[in-house]
Amino acid sequence: MNKQRGAGAITMLLMVTFAIMGLVLVMKVVPFYSDNASVETVFENLAKAGSEDGLSRSKVEEMIYKRFGINGITDLAEFVEVTGQGSAIVIEMVYERRTAFFSNIELVATFEHYVEVSE
């Protein structure tokens, strides 16, 4: 009769190492996507508000900075570009976020947003 065997010490060590690396990866990447969701929400709300109120370019910029401040993402405000195009105001945002994973390995996420706000 064969005896049941479990995972060896080396196998268990590898499993624990990969689990910890996965947890660290999730903890470092989730804030990027959380901030990006906040940016998307701000831009969607600006598009709705612009179609209802007919906002000016300066008012749109002011609203962006206020809403980024409320959401705690003021460091991303430097990547916002507001331009006028015809009868619409165009808001563009392209940015990337980086964080160290371990040693000389970095995690990089790139985000792009484009919204037109009608005047």
Average pLDDT:
88
Helix content: 40-55%
Strand order of the largest sheet: 1-2-3
Count of strand segments: 3
Structural class: alpha+beta
Succession of helices and strands: HHEEE
User: Given the C-alpha coordinates, what overall shape results?
Assistant: elongated
End-to-end C-alpha gap: 81 Å
Task: Give a structural overview.
The radius of gyration is 22 Å and the shape is elongated. β1 and β2 (88-102) form a beta hairpin. It contains two helices and three strands. Strands 1-2-3 form a three-stranded antiparallel β-sheet. With 119 residues, it is an alpha+beta fold. α1 runs antiparallel to α2. The model has no long low-confidence stretch (mean pLDDT 88).
Summarize the structure.
The protein is α+β, with helices and mostly antiparallel strands and 119 residues long.
Tags for this model:
three-stranded antiparallel beta sheet, 50% helix, 119 residues, alpha+beta, 2 helices
Helix and strand arrangement:
Blueprint: H1 9-53, H2 57-71, E1 80-85, E2 88-102, E3 105-118
Antiparallel strand pairs: 1-2, 2-3
Helix pairs in contact: 1-2
